[in-house]
Specification:
By secondary structure, this protein is of the alpha/beta class. It has one domain (5-259): 3-Layer(aba) Sandwich (UDP-N-acetylmuramoyl-L-alanine:D-glutamate ligase), CATH 3.40.1190. Helix content is 38%, strand content 20%. It is built from eight helices and nine strands. It has helices spanning 20-30, 58-71, 85-98, 120-130, 141-148, 155-167, 211-224, 229-245; strands spanning 5-14, 33-45, 50-55, 76-79, 103-105, 136-137, 173-175, 184-190, 195-201. Strands 3-2-1-4-5-6 form a six-stranded mixed β-sheet. A three-stranded antiparallel β-sheet has the order 7-8-9, with helices on both faces. Strand 2 (33-45) and strand 3 (50-55) form a beta hairpin.
């Protein structure tokens, strides 16, 4: 099967394989895309905790992006963890040269176990410099609260937060509702033209490590295939929900989801 789209992933590594660039590669591949990478950080982590984070020098990240794209131009780009102002600025500089418009930003700030992945200066730089340069941002509720400085408890609060982000210059927003204590999970999509609420039954499980990384990569892959932004969000959410339902139950903490749920493997080997 020939890949349907070429996706550049700019993100940090997760040694446990459940989130970060490992989850991104699995997602893009499972959905029929070709994954390329620029690694921004190396983490030592498992399903229970993050042990350490080692940052890649900004110049090296910029080189990864430019040298890769010089040879194979991406149809879409997914951005994950950028844990310093210098890294964020180097990525912005590189993206201006690459000139790919379909950019999905997952503003990763805190790991599933609560470990803070980026500092306050980096958060300010994301808010002031990068979020307006992307096609779509996909914050969860805690991340949206940091960006908008409001408390989010309801769907109405999520819509208010999305409107604040619009006023800051963000083009399209998808706020993920998984952190709300509700039987129905609502994800809010908003731009200047429309509001759309994706509703799904919440799945009871602790194994949701990497869902944000997976969703943003899935959306980028569908965008790269030529689907509309709305349809890409809809299909991305569907893929993540299926992956959660068929979770692997690996590890002692917040386990990974099953990225291979979309693949039917022929068992021709004995």
């Amino acid at each position: 099967m020939k890949p349907k789209s070429k996706i550049l992933i700019i993100a940090g590594s997760d040694s446990s394989g459940g989130a970060g660039i490992q989850a991104d590669i699995k997602t893009v591949t499972a959905l029929g895309g070709y994954a390329m990478t620029a690694v921004t950080a190396i983490t030592a982590q498992n399903t229970t905790a993050v042990k350490s984070v080692v940052t890649i020098p900004p110049k090296e990240i910029e080189k990864q992006i430019l040298f890769t794209c010089k040879d194979i131009k991406p149809d879409a780009i997914k951005i994950g963890m950028l844990n310093s102002p210098a890294i964020i600025l180097s990525v912005i500089k590189a993206l201006k040269k690459v000139k790919t418009k379909k950019i999905v930003l997952d503003p990763v700030m805190v790991a599933k176990g609560g470990f803070k992945l980026i500092n306050d200066k980096a958060i300010r730089t994301l808010r002031e410099k990068l979020i307006t340069q992307t096609h779509l941002i996909t914050p969860n509720i805690p991340e949206a609260e940091v960006f908008t400085k409001i408390k989010i408890n309801s769907v109405e609060d999520m819509i208010s937060a999305a409107n604040i982000l619009l006023k800051l210059g963000v083009k399209n927003i998808l706020i993920k509702g998984g952190h709300r204590n509700s039987k129905v999970m609502s994800d809010i999509f908003l731009n200047k033209q429309e509001l759309q609420i994706f509703k799904n039954k919440k799945i009871k499980t602790k194994n949701t490590h990497g869902t944000g990384c997976t969703l943003s990569s899935a959306i980028a892959t569908f965008l790269g295939c030529g689907k509309t932004l709305n349809k890409s969000c809809e299909l991305g959410i569907k893929y993540v929900n299926q992956s959660i339902r068929s979770n692997l139950n690996y590890g002692k903490g917040h386990g990974p989801i099953n990225h291979l749920n979309s693949i039917k493997i022929k068992r021709n080997f004995k």
